[in-house]
Amino acid sequence: MIKFLWYCYFGLYVFMKTVCFAPKIMFLRKFKPEKADAYAFKIFKIMCTHVLVKSKTDLKVSGLENIPEGACVFAGNHEAIFDVFAVLPCMKSITGFIAKQSLGKLPAVAWWMRQAHSVFIDRDNPREGIKAINQAVENLKAGYSVIVFPEGTRSLKSEIAEFKRGSLKLALKANVPIVPFTVDGTYRVLEVGNKVRGNKAKIIFHEPIYVENLSREEQKNITEIVHDIVKKAL
């Protein structure tokens, strides 16, 4: 499929799903917030899985047994926008993203992300950025997991840049496990060429890091520790 037509299809698909399910979710949220959360996340995962199927992506996932019960921070490399569709269906419980502010301006997409308790960071406004991180910490304490891409941008290739220092402090503040994950091949799905073709991609979830068991020095260097784990699997 030509990439332009793919994006048109995707936009229409998300819009139609929002029109169909948003009224029920908004109604549930008034009276049964927890039920609304669960229902919205179920639909969100179905939507992401649909995108995987339609793109004919051959996705291999390993290490699902390493995902612990309860809230945690998932931290991995970021090859492409397609990472979102690949990673989210693997989540066992309600999980949001830490995303850049520009994604928050995409009406239907941002609405679904907010239903999963995602937070949007304005990189040009440090004060608002701190507020967003604090909100993510509160979400973790409330039992909602979060996906973080510590590189801060897409690589568009099978390489990994340095993780931004301090990008995983929220796990230390909330005292929740960190689950490193490695993504490879997703950039070939939408980011390369003029057509969306079936491509092979993989996700590996590594063993969780329980921050309470780390020494002070290890906590200080947590971004480097996670970075090395993710990089070794590329």
Automatic annotation (TrEMBL):
Similarity-based family: Belongs to the 1-acyl-sn-glycerol-3-phosphate acyltransferase family.
Domain spans labelled Phospholipid/glycerol acyltransferase: 72-186
Transmembrane segments: 6-27
Enzyme class of the recorded protein, top EC level: transferase
EC annotation from Swiss-Prot or TrEMBL: 2.3.1.51
SUPFAM superfamilies: Glycerol-3-phosphate (1)-acyltransferase
InterPro entries documented for this protein: AGP_acyltrans, Plipid/glycerol_acylTrfase
Source organism of the structure: Clostridium oryzae
Pfam families: Acyltransferase
Keyword field: Acyltransferase, Lipid biosynthesis, Lipid metabolism, Membrane, Phospholipid biosynthesis, Phospholipid metabolism, Transferase, Transmembrane, Transmembrane helix
UniProt protein name: 1-acyl-sn-glycerol-3-phosphate acyltransferase
Enzymatic reactions: a 1-acyl-sn-glycero-3-phosphate + an acyl-CoA = a 1,2-diacyl-sn-glycero-3-phosphate + CoA
Record's GO cellular component terms: membrane
The record's note on its domains: The HXXXXD motif is essential for acyltransferase activity and may constitute the binding site for the phosphate moiety of the glycerol-3-phosphate.
One GO BP annotation of this record: phosphatidic acid biosynthetic process
Gene Ontology terms, MF aspect: 1-acylglycerol-3-phosphate O-acyltransferase activity
NCBIfam families: AGP_acyltrn
CDD domains: LPLAT_AGPAT-like (cd07989)
UniProt pathway: Lipid metabolism
